[in-house]
Amino acid sequence: MEAEQNKEKSGKSKIRKRILITVLIILLLALSAAGIYLMTYYHANDRAKEALQSDKSVQVEKTDYGWYFDGPGKDDALVFYPGARVEETAYAPFLHLLAERGLDVCLVKMPFRMAVFGKNKATNVMKQYSYKNWYIGGHSMGGAMAASYASAHSGKLKGVILCAAYTVDRLDDYLQVISVYGDRDRVIDRKKLEKGRELSPDSMAEYEIPGANHAGFGDYGSQRGDGKAEIPPEEQQRLAVEFIIRNLK
User: Fold this and answer.
1) Per the confidence metrics, is the pTM higher than 0.85?
2) Where are the alpha helices (DSSP H) in 105-232?
3) pLDDT for 33 beyond 70
């Protein structure tokens, strides 16, 4: 009888060990897959790298939080969050042009290149400067996280700039919200974009750029699942900048 009980206990112990080993293997595989996903990202191209150089209009400086684009403007600045799994410097041409037109930009480098892990980084960035008017914005997931920050810290901000992005949180009516996206964008969720309008002030300025897609706000090549753009990134970015600057109040 005792031998049978010992045998039964031994069998249960082996089953528990097999289950534990299986669970550990699954966890290791999941962690490996997550690591590969996070470390595989869209790289900035040569045009983006060139835009990191200072010129007669914009001084570009590498900082502890990312990059600072200091143009001729004195009062207005934008904290910009990059899209998911996109090298932050891919947005240099777009942001360089914004700074050239009077809106200085603080480009934030995100942990694992995912703004969801650094949503509140804007707080520390804004403490480093003394601008009169602060805006926050970003591209894709970066824009969504920027809007979420704005919803919780609206007293610190004048407005939100969404590039191929939408808010999932209610934005205060006094915030100036500017939304730009492309009509060839096949990445953005159009239903959530519509819902984002309902959560934004009625005064929101919105522009659907003809021929533009999702990836064209940055310079990192084509993006999986995106539509084919009918205009080059530099044209998309130029049109976006013109609309943004025209609607700043």
Assistant:
1) yes
2) 121-127, 141-152, 190-198
3) no
As a whole number of angstroms, the distance between CA 187 and CA 166 comes to 12
Structure tokens at 233: 């990134």
d(CA 56, CA 229): 31
Burial class of residue 240, CB neighbours in 10 A (0-12, 13-18, 19+): buried
Helix (H) or strand (E) holding 92: helix 92-100
Structure-token pair, residue 131: 């601008």
Query: Torsion over CA of 129, 130, 134 and 140, rounded to 10 degrees?
Result: -10
**Distance (Å, rounded) from C-alpha 209 to C-alpha 81?**
21
| Token pair recorded at residue 165 | 């992005």
Going by the DSSP 8-state scheme, the letter that residue 169 receives in this structure is S
Band of pLDDT at residue 15, cut at 50, 70 and 90: low
Backbone angles phi, psi at 65, to 5 degrees: -100, -15
